[in-house]
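Q: Got a minute? One more chain.
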Amino acid sequence: MTDRIDVAEALKALPLWRAHEGDRPAITRSLTFTDFNAAFGFMTRVALLADKVDHHPEWSNVYNRVEVLLTTHDAGGVTEKDVRMARFIDEAAAATGAK
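A: Always. Here it is, folded:
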C-alpha cells in the first residue's frame, strides 16, 4: 500500500489545486478549455498516462470544462501518485491552453 500524505502538504507543491470539500481527503482542479475538442484532447492525453501507471482520476466533462479529483483509493487519501498525476495534468492543461 502507498503511504498517505497530508492534503495541505501536497497542495504546497500544486498551486493550481485545492482541497476537496467532500467527505474524504482528495485534491481537485477545475479547468476551462477553448472548446470541447480541446477538453477532450486533454482528457485523452491524461487517460493514456493514467492507464499506463494504473492510477485514474475521477473527473467530469461538460463541453469545455473538466473537473478533476485525485485520491488514492487503496490508501484512503492523497499519495505521491496523486501529486505526480496532478503535475502531469498541469503540464497537459498548459499545453492545451487551459485556464
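A: The two ends are 34 Å apart (CA to CA).
Q: Perfect, thanks.
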